[in-house]
Design a protein that fits this description.
Elements lengths: L1 E9 L5 E3 L2 H9 L13 E12 L2 E14 L8 H20 L12 H7 L7 H11 L6 E2 L1
Parallel strand pairs: 2-5
Antiparallel strand pairs: 1-2, 1-3, 3-4
Helix pairs in contact: 2-3
Length: 144
């Protein structure tokens, strides 16, 4: 048994495009040289899907997370915005455990929650099924 992460970008018409993990990493590190012109000027939905493999065959989706990428008019990802949103998601998830969100005067700092909400989305049932089918190899999709 092994786990692999598959990443998909979802176009406005719900078309799925597979994005290699290494390509996203290059886009985040060097947005000027690694672009996605097909999504220029858009906020693009992204799905990260962890898939369980048994004997190199995908058997089930273990976990899915959803984010939004801001792409400028030249096809460059706004990497600083994406990183801020990811850190805010982590902070929001950890806040209840660490009890760090309330000040001494009873005021709750919801900044991280609002930043995190701006970078997430939830798929419809039909779109989730399509994402899972693509992750499990039952639906072919374009590779970026």
């Amino acid at each position: 048994m092994s786990l692999r992460c598959h990443r998909f970008l979802i176009a406005d018409d719900a078309t799925l495009c597979r994005l290699a993990n290494a390509k996203l990493e290059r886009m985040l590190r060097d947005p000027a040289n690694y672009r996605l012109p097909v999504f220029a000027g858009q906020r693009v939905r992204m799905a990260d899907v962890a898939v369980e493999f048994v004997d190199r065959v995908p058997v089930r989706v273990v976990r899915s997370t959803f984010a939004i990428l801001a792409i400028d008019d030249d096809g460059r990802i706004d990497s600083s915005k994406f990183v801020r949103q990811q850190f805010a998601l982590a902070e929001t998830a950890l806040a209840p455990v660490l009890a760090v969100s309330e000040s001494n005067d009873g005021v709750i700092d919801a900044t991280a929650r609002f930043v995190a909400q701006g970078g997430t989305w939830a798929p419809s049932h039909a779109l989730m099924r399509a994402i899972e089918d693509a992750a499990l190899g039952r639906l072919r999709c374009r590779r970026l």
